Amino acid sequence: MQEEKMSVEYDYSIAKLFLYSMMAFGFIGMLIGVVLALQLAFPSLNYIAGEYSIFGRLRPLHTNGIIYGFTLSGIWAAWYYLGQRVLKITYHQHPFLKFIGLMHFWTYIVLLLLAVVSLFAGLTQSKEYAELIWPLDLLVVVVWVLWGVSLFGSMGVRREQTIYISLWYFIATFTAIAVLYIFNNLAIPTYLVAGVGSVWHSISMYAGSNDAMVQWWWGHNAVAFVFTSGIIGMIYYFLPKESGQPIFSYKLTLFSFWSLMFVYIWAGGHHLIYSTVPDWIQTLSSVFSVILILPSWGTAINMLLTMRGQWHQLKESPLIKFLVLASTFYMLATLEGPIQSIKSVNALAHFTDWIVGHVHDGVLGWVGFSIIAATYHMLPRIFKREIYSKKIIEIQFWIMTIGIVLYFSSMWIAGITQGMMWRDVDQYGNLAYQFIDTVTKLHPYYVIRSVGGILYLVGFVMFIYNVLMSMSASKKLEREPNYATPMAA
């Protein structure tokens, strides 16, 4: 293993804080997800804690916890780690940037805690991925602005003139979410304006189909610019660093980045196919969704070809396994999504569990595996200790992979079964099945989905244990590893 002396002492204190929150909110979000899966298989579990345990109360906690707790914490841990390194700055030299970073973290934690309390209490705007009530929307803006100050402030004092690929995607994440979130959440607080209703209640500034279009302009691009561009920014740094290989193609990177930025922003309307929005909008969003295969596969192929001639690392490094399979799941999810957005396919797939399977093979495989691999890469460099156990990583990898396969395969079968049963008619044109018939038919697949979720959660608990033991009980490192992450057997 090649090693190099520490020539620069980076300040990883903020990255550590975001790693802690990533593990905490990842565990909470995934645990709630398992509870929700079990509730669908066994409905009596909805009532174990009264109104606070019902599916409708828990699901926003699950989605917000995974998107804005687990994923954003992972992205921001990566930013506060790699930002210093690729820009050749340190927070020791720039205490203002460190202060902004600490403000960013603690404001973010306050926001997440308030989000948990308010969502548990049933306070919501009832918009997918935008449930938070209006006072918390204002706090979201503060958190996002603080990250922007950190992001652009660091670039403003950089000693490396070239802006590395990862930072392109972080800039895109910041810019797109800032615009989309603000416009989607423009609302009028009813109590402050009219003196009626709860002080937390508000109504959207849009109505009807306009509200739906703006909502899914945001909703789909929350996936585009958190789950996608933010994670791409991470993998473009950690895969080359871990493998010791240069990125396969800079030109392919340019093509993939700019086409992703242009195309993805217009794909959200495919959530509204066969609705009251104008037909040309539905068609346009379907077309852009299909075109989206090109930049998405461009990125994934660029990642996989980075490993050309080095596939033996799949046997030697469990981190490479995570990163390569993450790229593979990205290819799968970004082919599946465009297929589902084709109108004829959407007629079968919409509102079925096939959509649920699509979301989760992307999040569990692409997002989860990328963040886990990035964390394992950062650990020895942040804490100056080798990874506690390579065996745990290997076992964790296979348990989580089996969990994902059980999850998405059961949901694919369940979804297509649902769609076919809902559309089936007898010789007189009457529906052949009642809705309850589909519910009964899908019970075995809901049980399999629950087992898959439990396996993934078990793997994540193993990950947390390995991380904590690496921080406290593993062998100390005198030198920073250059490429491969050092780990005990």
Give a verbal description of the structure.
α1 (13-41) runs parallel beside α3 (95-120) and α8 runs antiparallel to α10 (293-306). The model is unreliable at 1-6 (pLDDT under 50). This protein has one domain (3-481): Cytochrome c oxidase-like, subunit I domain (Cytochrome C Oxidase, Chain A). It has helices at residues 13-41, 55-87, 95-120, 134-156, 165-184, 190-194, 208-243, 250-264, 279-291, 293-306, 313-316, 318-341, 343-349, 353-383, 390-423, 435-472; strands at residues 3-4, 187-189, 202-204, 480-481. The chain has a two-stranded antiparallel ribbon. It has a two-stranded antiparallel ribbon with strand order 2-3. The two termini are 15 Å apart. The protein has 489 residues and is an all-alpha fold. It contains 16 helices and 4 strands. It is a multi-pass membrane protein. It is found in: Cell membrane. One of its GO terms (molecular function) is metal ion binding.
